[in-house]
Amino acid sequence: MNVLRFEHVFAFYEEGKDVLRDVSFHVDEGEFIAIIGHNGSGKSTLAKLSAGLLSPSNGKIFIYDELLTPKNVQLLRKHIGIVFQNPDNQFIGSSVEDDIAFGLENQNIPREEMVKRVKEFATLTGMDDFLDKEPEHLSGGQKQRVAIAGVLAMNPDILILDEATAMLDPKGRKEMMDIVLHMHELNPKLTIILITHEIEETLKADRIIALNDGKVFLEGKPKEIYAKEDTLRAIELDVPFFYKMKNALTSIGVDVSDIEDLKTLEEYLCQLNA
Amino acid sequence: MSIKCLDLTHTYQIKSPLEQEALKNINLTLEDGKYIAIVGHTGSGKSTLVEHFNGLLFPTSGEVHIDDYISNNKKRKNKKELLKLREKVGLVFQFPEYQLFEETVLKDVMFGPKNFKVDIETAKNRAIEALRQVGLDDSYFERSPFELSGGEKRRVAIAGILAMEPKILVLDEPTAGLDPLGAKEILNLLKRLHESGKTIILVTHDMDIVLNEVEDVVLLKDGQLIRHADHIKIFEENLEDLSLEVPVSYKFITSLNEHGYHLDVKDSKDVLKLAKSIKEEIDSWRR
Ligand SMILES: Nc1ncnc2c1ncn2[C@@H]1O[C@H](COP(=O)(O)OP(=O)(O)O)[C@@H](O)[C@H]1O
Ligand SMILES: Nc1ncnc2c1ncn2[C@@H]1O[C@H](COP(=O)(O)OP(=O)(O)O)[C@@H](O)[C@H]1O
Ligand SMILES: [Mg+2]
Ligand SMILES: [Mg+2]
C-alpha cells in the first residue's frame, strides 16, 4: 500500500509561478525516504502539500490510497506528524510541557497517559529539565528538540522532518536521528520522510528523491542515486564520502562494486596488505 | 596586530543563583594574518570568548590585549577607544541576517560605516566595495534584504561588517543553518579575504571546516582551553569525547594508514587523488 502518492502535482504560491511542476512519486508503508535538493527546489512545499496545508493547483495527492480533498483533509491529516524547518512557526503553548502536549490534546488521550507521554518524549529528546520553561527563551536547537518530542509523542503513521535538526550541533543532530531511527525499528510501519542537507544522513534511507527547480530530478536507492555523481555534480549537489571514494576507485580500475558501505570498504582495503 | 588573552576569566550573572563561569583562565595568543577556528561543544564558551575580541564583553578577571587596546575589568570604558577597537575588529554574530533592517541592501551595508562617522559618500563607496567582495553586484543594491535567500542575506550581513574595513574579521558560526551551496559561498569568501591579508577567526562545530579550510584551531571545553594547535594536529585530541564529530574522510584515511597505507589527510577533499594513492599502494603490494 502507498501511504503517500503524488500524481502529476503542480503547486504555486503566486498565480503563474509554479514552484512544483509535474511531481509524481509514491511512498510505501514503513519506508524511509530522504528528500534532497537546493534551497528553493520545492522540498518544503512538497512537505506542506503532503500534510494538506497547501492544495495542489493541478494533479492528485493520495494518503493511504485515498484522494486528498478539502472534505477529508482534516481526517487524513491525523496520519501525519510534521516538524517544520523554522521551529518558531509551531509554538503555541506557554510552556515546553504544553507544547509537547498540544498534539495529544486533539487525540482524546486520557490526562494521565498524556502526562506520561510528554515526560517520556521530553526525556528522550533531552528536554525534561525544561518542561516548565517558556519556549521563546530556548535556543534554536532546543526548540527543534521540543518540536521533535511533540511530534513523536503523537505517534504518527507518517513522520515528515523538514530540516528539523538544522539548528542543532552535530552531536545533537546525531542524537535526534538516532531517536528517529530507533522509533522506526520499534515500529516498522512508521513511514519516515526526511528532508535534509546532511548528505551522510541519507545513506540509511530506503530511497532518495532529489528535487531540482520544482521537479523530481532523480529518484532511487542511495546506491543508484550516488552512482550518478556527475549528474548530481552538474546541479552542484554533493555525494557522501563513501560513494565518492567508491566511484573514484572504480573509475581507476579498482573493483569495489560489491561493497555497500564505508566500513566494509575500509576492511577490504586494509586486508589487501596482509 | 595580535590578540592576547592573559588569564582571561568570564563569569555571567556573578553573585546570583545563576552565576556561570563561562571562561576559566584562558591564556592564548592569536597571531596576525592567520585563519583560525574556535571549536568546542555547545556551551563551551566560544561565543563568550570571541565577544571579548571587540569589546562587547569585558573580562571578569584577567586581560585581553587587542593590539594596543587593553581590556580588563578595571578601566572605565572610553567610548572613543572602543569605537576604534570595533573598527579594527569586526564581529559577525550568529544568524546575523536577523539584524538586517534597512529597506535596501545598499543602505543596510552603509549603516556600519555611517555609524563610525564616515561621510555618506565614503560610506557608500565602502559599502559598494564590500558588496563586491561578498559577490553581490549592483543588481542587488536596491533590493530589499528580506526578499533574498538565506545565503545572500548572510553575505549582506557580512558585507555590513566588511564595510567598516576591519583588520580582523570574527564570525560566530557563519555557515550554521545554510544549505551546502550557501555554506560553500561563505567559505570561499572567507578564503579570499584571508588571502587578501585579513585575519579570520571563525567559531564552528564543523570539523570538515577545521580539516579543509583553516590554519590553526583553538579547542575549548567547559570554558577551558584544551589546545591551540595546527588544524591537523588538533585531530590527535579525542574529539568525540568533546562532542565533536570527526569527519568520515579523516577516519577512513587514518584507519587505512594504520594498515600500511601512506595517505595524506590534507587530501581529504581530493578523493580522486586519494583513490590513486590507494591504487599505487595496492599495485606495489601485488608486485
Ligand atoms: N509562502 C510563500 N510565498 C511565496 N513563495 C514561496 C513561499 N514559500 C516558498 N516560496 C517559493 O517557492 C519555491 C520553493 O520553496 P520551498 O518549497 O520552500 O523550497 P525548499 O524547501 O526546497 O527550500 C521558492 O522559490 C520559494 O521562494
Ligand atoms: N547572557 C548569559 N547569561 C548567563 N549565562 C550565559 C549567557 N551567555 C552564555 N551563558 C552561558 O555561558 C556558557 C558559555 O556560553 P557560550 O559562550 O554561548 O557557548 P558556545 O558559544 O560555545 O555555545 C554556557 O553555559 C551558557 O549557558
Ligand atoms: Mg525548505
Ligand atoms: Mg555560541
Secondary structure blueprint with pairings:
The complex is a heterodimer of chains A (274) and B (287).
Chain A: E1 2-14, E2 17-28, E3 32-36, H1 43-50, E4 58-63, E5 66-67, H2 73-77, E6 80-83, H3 96-105, H4 111-124, H5 140-153, E7 158-162, H6 170-186, E8 191-195, E9 207-212, E10 215-220, H7 222-227, H8 229-234, H9 241-251, H10 262-271
Chain B: E1 3-12, E2 20-30, E3 35-39, H1 46-50, E4 61-66, E5 69-71, H2 79-88, E6 89-92, H3 105-115, H4 120-133, H5 150-162, E7 168-172, H6 180-195, E8 199-203, H7 207-212, E9 216-221, E10 224-230, H8 248-257, H9 271-286
Parallel strand pairs in B: 3-8, 3-9, 6-7, 7-8
Antiparallel strand pairs in B: 1-2, 1-4, 4-5, 9-10
The complex binds adenosine-5'-diphosphate (2 copies) and magnesium ion (2 copies).
Residues 43-44, 85, 162-163 of chain A line the site of one magnesium ion (MG).
Commentary on this structure:
- The complex is a heterodimer of chains A (274) and B (287).
- Chain A has two domains: 2-239, Rossmann fold (3-Layer(aba) Sandwich), CATH 3.40.50.300; 240-274, no CATH class.
- Chain A has ten helices and ten strands.
- Chain A has helices at 43-50, 73-77, 96-105, 111-124, 140-153, 170-186, 222-227, 229-234, 241-251, 262-271, and strands at residues 2-14, 17-28, 32-36, 58-63, 66-67, 80-83, 158-162, 191-195, 207-212, 215-220.
- In chain A, α6 (170-186) links the parallel β7 and β8.
- Chain A is globular, with a radius of gyration of 20 Å.
- The relative contact order of chain A is 0.14.
- Chain B has two domains: 3-246, Rossmann fold (3-Layer(aba) Sandwich); 247-287, no CATH class.
- In chain B, the strands form two sheets. Chain B has a six-stranded mixed beta sheet.
- In chain B, β9 and β10 form a beta hairpin.
- In chain B, α3 packs across α4, α3 (105-115) runs parallel beside α5 and α5 (150-162) runs parallel beside α6.
- Residues 46-47, 172 of chain B line the site of one magnesium ion.
